[in-house]
């Protein structure tokens, strides 16, 4: 009997649907009969996919769709739309059949007509809801037709924040319409997730924030939290926007207010869990935003909420997951978790629970705590190694600056060395033209008992001559300097000495010219009173001796001898030398210590040495600027050190010069 009844039911269902469809067609003038027939149809098709599919096959689905658009009776429109929603919700094929842009446009007309009642609008919103639920195409149509913009407008205007009355939410049609709009918006952005619709829906976040700030009633907080949670889910852009307008702060405040009442009201505690889920959705993809919740001590409040024994396993999972996201990267929340005994509580949940999801979430929090302790130990170790005084840090900064200047100096020195090598090559080529001069110099040295082939004797003789440059030359028994009776001759001799000092290296390597050999001997008229002239010029020679410590003795001695021999050279040869660049004629004497002074005194610098001199001056200018920036204490200390060094050097040099003077006078 039972089997026969089951087999009979499908036949009876099909018969009933055929009769009801005929009734709708032949009762067009009787809206009440049509309404009754529609109510019977949706009662049969509700949660019955087979009946809904059969009704679609016999054409009943499209007939009701046309009836909703063409009927002039409001009650028939409302019943037809509701029946369409039930059938679409029960069968996916019916959803695909009616999911067209034309139907969305018809529903928009129902929503914008002024004569449309609240119930008709609510039925239209319900049809939109079932069309977009779990349907990507429906989500696209609702956006392309502009239907989602109309839904957002209804969200803003249907319920006023100043005239709200949610105490009778089950009977208030405006609240029911607003609640349906919230549910439809949730379906537009979720399952599947639609980022384009999420980006559009975030435009009403300020209104949702205003609602939460003004009301904590479950009828308001729950729909808004559901809408916010699904709109920000897995969308970092929308999450950042919600946090930027203060939405996360508002949720934290609402949670604090609800938890204050949770000890007295079970509904407040359940609503606090809903707010917790929404907060978790806001920071799930960007845990760094959890720092906003630190100032409200949200972690400690969540731990208190977790200790409630009336919570279900699903609610505990939501709370622990939120704690995990709050403590993932935020040190303040991590410290708060430790301070409020969060670790023992997580361990207790991990050991006592049998639910797999709950164990996973508790493990997630414990993993965050492990990473936190490792990072803390590393920071303490780094701090112990890097803690230094302010003076040491200042020294490091100065050293880094000096290293930069040293690099520049090395670059300039490298360029100078390259130029010196070029001049050395030129000097080697010039030796071919002075072979005769070299032979003549050798003969002169041999005539005075000096063998040029014996470097020891030659060097010793040269050093002996340098010890007292005021005396007459022991090589040729002539006065080193010409007569000082006339001022022009004195000036000429001084210029000759300066020119000779700038060419000390070249003259040491290249023998003097034939013209110099011809003028080596000083006229007897100048040497008769040589002793008297030497005594008169004693002070001048002693003044010149103060430069001896700054020059090499070997270079200076040979140069001094050669310069004295060439004091009577013709003025024409000096003029020709002055017209050439000192850097080009100096040869090996042009080094990093002497080239600046030598080139500055030269009036005919070549283009190559002029560029080098300008680079040197710019570099020295940078050093002077850096030195001026140093503290007054460092400058004073350096000045004191330099003064002491100069003083010591002067004390060492004065006895030497006095001994020279005494030996000269004794002779």
From TrEMBL:
GO-annotated biological processes: homologous chromosome pairing at meiosis; meiotic attachment of telomere to nuclear envelope
Amino acid composition bias (Polar residues), ranges on this chain: 483-539
Chain segments carrying region Disordered: 479-539
Protein name: TERB1 protein
Chain's gene name: Terb1
């Amino acid at each position: 009997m039972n089997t026969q009844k089951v087999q009979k039911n499908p036949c009876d269902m099909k018969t009933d649907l055929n009769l009801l469809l005929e009734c709708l067609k032949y009762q067009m003038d009787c809206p009440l009969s049509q309404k009754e027939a529609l109510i019977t149809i949706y009662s049969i098709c509700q949660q019955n996919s087979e009946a809904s599919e059969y009704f679609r096959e016999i054409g009943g689905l499209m007939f009701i769709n046309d009836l909703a658009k063409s009927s002039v009776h409001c009650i028939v429109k409302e019943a037809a739309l509701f029946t369409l929603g039930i059938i679409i919700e029960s069968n996916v094929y019916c959803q695909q059949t009616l999911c067209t842009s034309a139907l969305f446009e018809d529903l928009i007309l129902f929503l914008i007509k002024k004569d449309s009642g609240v119930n008709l609008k609510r039925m239209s919103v319900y049809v939109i809801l079932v069309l977009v639920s779990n349907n990507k195409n429906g989500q696209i149509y609702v956006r392309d037709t502009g239907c989602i913009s109309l839904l957002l407008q209804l969200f803003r205007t249907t319920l006023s924040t100043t005239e709200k009355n949610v105490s009778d939410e089950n009977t208030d049609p405006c609240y029911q319409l607003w609640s349906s709009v919230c549910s439809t918006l949730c379906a537009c952005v979720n399952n599947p997730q639609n980022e384009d619709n999420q980006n559009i829906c975030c435009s009403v976040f300020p209104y949702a924030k205003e609602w939460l700030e003004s009301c904590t009633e479950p009828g308001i907080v729950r729909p808004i939290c559901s809408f916010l949670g699904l709109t920000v889910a897995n969308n970092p852009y929308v999450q950042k926007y919600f946090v930027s307008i203060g939405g996360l702060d508002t949720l934290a405040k609402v949670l604090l207010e609800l938890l204050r009442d949770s000890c007295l009201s079970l509904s407040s505690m359940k609503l606090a869990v809903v707010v917790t889920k929404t907060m978790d959705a806001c920071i799930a993809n960007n845990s760094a935003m959890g720092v906003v919740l630190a100032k409200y001590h949200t972690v400690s409040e969540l731990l208190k909420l977790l200790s409630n024994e009336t919570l279900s396993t699903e609610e505990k999972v939501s709370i622990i997951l939120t704690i995990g996201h709050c403590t993932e990267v935020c040190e303040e929340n991590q410290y708060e978790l430790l301070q409020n005994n969060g670790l023992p509580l997580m361990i207790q949940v991990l050991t006592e629970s049998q639910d797999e999801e709950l164990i996973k979430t508790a493990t997630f929090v414990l993993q965050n705590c492990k990473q936190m302790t490792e990072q803390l130990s590393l920071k303490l170790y780094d701090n112990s190694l890097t803690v230094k005084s302010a003076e040491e840090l200042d020294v490091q900064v100065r050293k880094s600056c000096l290293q930069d200047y040293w690099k520049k100096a090395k670059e300039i020195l490298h360029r100078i060395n390259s130029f010196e090598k070029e001049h050395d090559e030129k000097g080697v080529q010039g030796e071919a033209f002075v072979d005769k001069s070299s032979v003549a110099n050798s003969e002169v040295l041999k005539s005075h008992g000096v063998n040029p082939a014996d470097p020891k004797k030659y060097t010793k003789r040269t050093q002996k001559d340098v010890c007292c440059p005021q005396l007459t030359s022991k090589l040729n028994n002539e006065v080193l300097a010409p007569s000082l009776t006339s001022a022009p001759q004195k000036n000429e001799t001084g210029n000759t000495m300066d020119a000779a000092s700038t060419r000390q290296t070249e003259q040491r390597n290249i023998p003097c010219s034939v013209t110099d050999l011809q003028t080596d001997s000083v006229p007897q008229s100048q040497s008769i009173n040589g002793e008297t002239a030497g005594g008169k010029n004693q002070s001048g020679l002693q003044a010149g001796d103060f430069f001896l410590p700054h020059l090499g003795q070997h270079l200076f001695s040979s140069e001094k001898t050669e310069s004295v021999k060439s004091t009577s050279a013709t003025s024409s040869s000096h003029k020709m030398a002055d017209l050439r660049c000192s850097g080009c004629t100096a040869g090996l004497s042009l080094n990093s210590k002497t080239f600046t002074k030598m080139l500055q005194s030269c009036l005919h610098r070549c283009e190559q040495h002029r560029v080098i001199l300008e680079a040197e001056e710019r570099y020295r200018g940078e050093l002077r600027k850096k030195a001026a920036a140093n503290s007054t204490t460092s400058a004073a200390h350096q000045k004191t050190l330099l003064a002491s060094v100069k003083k010591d050097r002067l004390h060492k040099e004065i006895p030497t010069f006095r001994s020279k003077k005494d030996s000269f006078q004794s002779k």
